Protein 1
Amino acid sequence: MEVITENVDVESGNTSDPEEGSCSDNDFEPSKLGTKEYWEDAYQKELEITDIGDVGEIWFGEESMSRVLRWMDKANIPENAAILDIGTGNGAFLVELAKHGYRNLTGIDYSSASVELARTILQTEGLTDVSVKEMDFLNCHGELKGFDVCIDKGTFDAISLNPDNSKEGKKLYLQVLKDALKDKGFFAVTSCNWTKEQLLDRFSEGFDFVQELPTPSFQFGGKTGNSVTALIFKRVH
């Protein structure tokens, strides 16, 4: 499940007006992008048309992967760090992480077509040690534990757009994330829906803000904003 694209119309981008930064339980209108059916259909179609050896469409943009990888390099994340890719989609980021030397990788997605596609691509790349599981992050039943780094590039966005009780989904996401991460583990989130201020508010409980990663900016209507927000948090007890 990967929602993000960096080709976002400026009118739907994230502006930096502090008065618009607070969160409510109805932040966004519900969308089909928040449903499992949408992503199952999307990845089934990609599975049918993707050539062997082709990673297919990178839904969230290559630059979103690159900026997180640059941060990991600068933060000296060890190659044996336990890394969870939340909503792995076609597994493109798992491929890049493995190529950068990371050896303890897990990807999860609630779409069976996504998992099949990711496994096929990883196998084609000769990356047979990467674990990909069909699993709903919100219903993992405590199976996700002990991770040094959790990476989200659109899953929290999708949960926020779910027509069926996104309020409870957002609360559950926070709890599952806290349980999945080790103390002082890192959370890297990339969003095209949430502003920096809103994400700081959402993840204020149990996390310290570490840094904002540079993303493309624009000016519109006298305001400066970003089409994508990318933040790093650290788990604290």
Protein 2
Amino acid sequence: MACPVQLGFQDAASPIMEELMYFHDHTLMIVFLISSLVLYIISLMLTTELTHTSTMDAQEVETVWTILPAVILILIALPSLRILYMMDEITTPSLTLKTMGHQWYWSYEYTDYENLCFDSYMTPSSDLKPGELRLLEVDNRVVLPTEMSIRMLISSEDVLHSWTVPSLGVKTDAIPGRLNQATLMTSRPGIYYGQCSEICGANHSFMPIVLELVPLKHFEEWLLAML
């Protein structure tokens, strides 16, 4: 999860989030180089009295500053499209989890098992135990296995919500009457926090998401305890 005064992203816990972070660094470097070049040219124009009429009117210069931005856009677009297709690709999922947004809590259903569903409410500050996080802890965590492809089916029963877990690179809108799909796979066990990222009413800030990712053996033990 995020730390105080943190400027960058949270540590990636899924292959998709790792790709998104690489793409962010790639794009940020291009933006930094363009900004430095523009700042240098502006400084040069403000501090020198020399002008080169032949240079300013040259067709070669106009050709370069027309083609170069197009090349830069291609260098940004190609990795972006690759990640978009990776995020939309649904391979054979090992598990399907349906998530429904409500005002103001989440409900979950493991569709591969009978009668395995529950609601997840934010834990009030007065009920927090030592070490639990205010406004981020819930009464029922979502337990999922690591290193397995999981299909998320996300919808809503009232207004627009958004199911978001930054560490996993997942942000999918929950829209009434529409079933959205996302892929979830983690590379290491841990507890990952998220929140609703769509303004959905008075208690929008009190819809946390907590995923507990465990090895398959521990997930099977949790299933036996729940069923």
Protein 3
Amino acid sequence: MSWGFLRDLLSGVNKYSTGIGRIWVAVVFIFRLLVYIVAAENIWKYEHDEFECNIKQPGCENVCFDHFFPVSQISLWALQLIMVSTPSLLVVFHVAYREKREKHRNQKLYKSPGEIDGGLLCTYLISLILKMGLEIVFLVLFYKLYNGFKVPRLVKCDIRPCPNTVDCFISKPTEKMIFLYFLVATSCLCIVLNLSELSYLIFKYSIKRYLKRYIKKCPGSLDFSSALWLCHLREKIIPSSPGSEKNVDRTIWQL
């Protein structure tokens, strides 16, 4: 299977991400995609052929394998990688829409089409929520489909056409279990990174809105920290000292 499209998608998203978002891209690309391609895919490559039962009844091994592995673990892992990366397309499409809009009107409409603000901020937050939701959904699927994240060495099967309860053996159970634990760990790490980025953007936007509301009362060109301090100063002095508004404004102008 070719993963070039996912690599290109992650590279494109990296340009419009925050610092935390770039860490998420690195984790997905290095610790999930490369691990899948280089190692995990080969471990599950012949899982059906290496699944053996201690009976040669025609069809018995097939129905037992289908019962214990309704969806191949490696296929579900691949589907998870694709699904959790897809919401990032929303950001890429939104940036492309901004660029096309500027080109169509032949004028500068944004400071930068890739700057995370306004509608693009909403799109970015939605993509983060979708990523977290999909990660959680797939972790639950893994847990429910395979009765946890352990891979047993031996499973007992009594499904027809097996004439009685037979023992079936799974190949490389320890190695598969280690990789499944690694999958769970990286998924949890990605959830933490998405949640951190979501919190960071909401906090940053809230501070920005707070300053926009109060900076109007503070004339002059001030940096972030000075504006915040002067706005607090103005709010505290003016209500407690009627008639002092002009003096405070004069002081601010001098600063």
Protein 4
Amino acid sequence: MGSDSEAINYAWFDPQRLHPEVESLIYWRSAARSGAALGAGLALLVALACCSVVSVLAYSSLLALTAAVAFRVYKNVLQAVQKTNEGHPFKWLLEQDVSVSAERAQSLAAAATAHLNAALAELRRLFLVEDLVDSLKFGVLLWCLTYVGACFNGITLIILAWIALFSLPKAYEMNKAQVDANLELARSKINEISAKVRAAVPLGRKAEDKDK
């Protein structure tokens, strides 16, 4: 059981599937950068919870613009005093290419379309009860979400998800063997119960099984 559970590859905790920059942040490869990203995200989300989106965007942009203007003026005064000509302090940023290529846009659109089509197909399958057991499990999930919605609003859930993004992957990495073993045990129990329900309820079998 131990060797099998260690071989399980749970995609949502697999760092190899992530962009290197994202993997570095959520796995705390650099504590300073990860802490700054976590703190900045929390500050933004708390601000959104207290103020309107327009106010948060306006104040954030005004703060960034003020800092940029102050830094530009400071560098210009420093260059005048030292009689140097270092050029624009943000020259390296102004020279960066921020345009999105047509190929990149098409790639993102194709990926988004593929995910959307997969989600629509899965929702159709669940709501039209192609498999009774899967639809019942989906119903239980929706029922649980009604209690989650009664306790938390949307922005609170996003804040909790942001904190989980910076804590669960690292916790999993540090306790991979134990977590994999428990997840495999839970998965086997769920599959066992699902198999019993499908055997007891003919409607739980998929359409292709009925045709055989």
